[in-house]
Amino acid sequence: MKINYLIVFICALPGLAGGAQAQQAGQDVITDPAAIRVCLCRQETVAALSDRLQEQRRAYEERRAALAALDAQVQAQRKQLDPTQPSQLEAFKHLLDQRDEAELSFADEATPTYAAAVDRHNAEAAAYNRECAGKIYDQSALAAAQAQSFACPKP
Q: I need a labelling partner for 134 at 20 to 30 A (CA). Which of 40, 54, 72, 99 fits?
């Protein structure tokens, strides 16, 4: 999984509040209010995508656990199955159909949806890291950026 960007993003946030100490350490200073707004929006977007990613991860794990439970049921019933009992065979076939349907749904829906959420989060985190992480904002430019009304695009 590509969750490493989330850690890099969180670790990079303290650098946003740095001052003269950060400048002495050789960090870049963003002096353009428009660039600061871009970084503020990227930061907001990464946070929102991180929240969505957590929701997607929960949904993915719930579906994976449901599939694993059905698979365990199949294995347990298979051991106790009496092939001479038509009702047991019918119940087992029904369980196999449920498991197969869950497996297909997991592979065709849950996995691609979660992978897309991970990819989107990581792409935005990479953009934030490339353009904003490790940089500090010039305080007057930050004040100018925040003084103007602006709305970040929804992720």
A: 54
3 state SS of 137? strand
> Of 145, 133, 126, nearest to 31 (Cα)?
145
Which secondary-structure segment (H or E) carries 136? strand 136-137
Question: pTM of the prediction?
Answer: 0.72
| Span 20-49, pLDDT tens digits | 444 445 679 999 999 999 999 999 999 999
Each domain of the chain, given as residue ranges in start order, spans 4-147
CA distance 95 to 75: 10
Contacts of 36 (CB under 8 A, 6+ apart): 30, 137, 141, 142, 145
